[in-house]
Amino acid sequence: MKAILRLSAALSLVACLSGTAGLWAQQKKEKALDVTGRENSPFSRNEADLPKGPAPRLNGHPDLSGYWIPSKKDKPTGNLGKDYPGYKLPFTPAGEAALKYNLEHTVDPEAVCIVGGLPRHNASGLPFQLLQGADHAVFLYWYTTYRLVPFDGRKHAEDPDPSFFGEEIGSWEGDTFVVDSSAFKEQRTWADENGNPHSDQQHVVERWTRPDIGHIHVDMTVTDPKFYTEPVHYQRTWLLGKPGDEVKEYSCAEDNVDAPHLGPGPGPIGPDGQRGYGKLAPLPPPPDKNHPAVTSIPD
C-alpha cells in the first residue's frame, strides 16, 4: 500500500508524531489508529502491561535491544527544553537570532523528508527500535531512517564529514552505553520539534541505561557554544513494546502533495510547550505530473 503523506501546513504541527503528519495518516489508514495511541497501537504502551525482571545481558553488558515506546510521563513531547522553566533554553544572542529565523523562514525539515538527526530524534514522540550487536548498535526510526553506532574501540576522525546524526562513537562505562557525537550539519535541521536551532559546533553525549527489562532511559547533554550559553540537558524514558512490535517501511516523499504549501516554523506552541494540531487545512489536489511536488528545501 502506498504511504500517504498528508503534510498541510496545519498537519505539520503534529508534535506527538515528531512533526511527520504523513506517518499518522499512513497508520490511521492501515490500522485505524489515532495519534494519541489507543490500545493495541504500536505507538502506545501501559506500564502495568510491561514484563517484570532484570534487563537481559549480552557479552557482559545490558542488551538494549527492543522496540521502545515513549512513556506518557515525559511531557512535553518534542521539546528540547522539556525540563527547563517555561521551556526556555539558554540562548546566546546568535541562538535567539537562529530561533527567530527558524520560526519565520524555515519549513520544518522533517516535513520535506530531511532526516531529523540529533538531538531531535531523542525528543521524538514516535517509538524506535534498537538492535545491539557485538560491536555496533543500530537505531531504527519510523521514517525508514537509521543510525549506526560503533563501539569497537575506534576514535573520532580528525576531520569527519558533517552529517545529520554527526560522527557517532559508542563505548561502555559499566552498564551505561555512551554515545559521543560531533560534526553536525548546520541549518538543514532543527534541534527539536519546536524549531529550536543547533549549529555546526554542536556536541552531543548520550548515556543510555536499561534499569530493567521493561524500560530504557537516556540522559543527553547537548553542548553548542554558538547558540547556547551552557550545556542543555535532556532526559526521558521509553517502555518496551509488545512482542512482534517493530518499525515498518515508510516512504516520506511518496505522494507528497503538500510540500509546496507548507509555511515556515512549527506553528503555534501551546502553554504546555508542545506543538498542537490547530485547524486542519483542506488537502491540496495531487500534483500535476508535469510539475511534481517539491521534496527538499532549496540550498
Kindly, what is the distance between the CA atoms of the first and last residues, rounded to a whole number of angstroms?
Answer: 32 Å
Fraction of residues in β-strands = 15-25%
Number of helices: 2
Helix content: under 10%
Q: Which residues form runs of ≥5 with pLDDT under 50?
A: 1-37, 292-299
Query: Helix- and strand-based class?
Result: mainly beta
Q: How many β-strand runs?
A: 11
Compact description:
Residues 1-25 form the signal peptide. Residues 34-58, 252-299 are annotated as: Disordered. The protein has 299 residues and is mainly β.
Write the layout of secondary structure elements.
Blueprint lengths: L20 H11 L25 E2 L2 E2 L3 E5 L22 H13 L22 E5 L3 E6 L3 E6 L16 E7 L2 E7 L20 E10 L2 E9 L8 E9 L59
Antiparallel strand pairs: 1-2, 3-4, 3-11, 4-5, 5-6, 7-8, 8-9, 9-10, 10-11
Give your account of this protein's structure:
Residues 34-58, 252-299 are annotated as: Disordered. Keywords: Signal. Residues 1-25 form the signal peptide. The protein is mainly beta. It has one domain (11-261). It is 8% helix and 23% strand. It has two helices and eleven strands. The protein has helices spanning 21-31, 93-105; strands at residues 57-58, 61-62, 66-70, 128-132, 136-141, 145-150, 167-173, 176-182, 203-212, 215-223, 232-240. It has a nine-stranded antiparallel sheet, with no helix packed on it. It has a two-stranded antiparallel sheet with strand order 1-2. It starts with 20 loop residues before the first helix and ends in a 59-residue tail after the last strand. Residues 1-37 and 292-299 have low confidence and may be disordered.
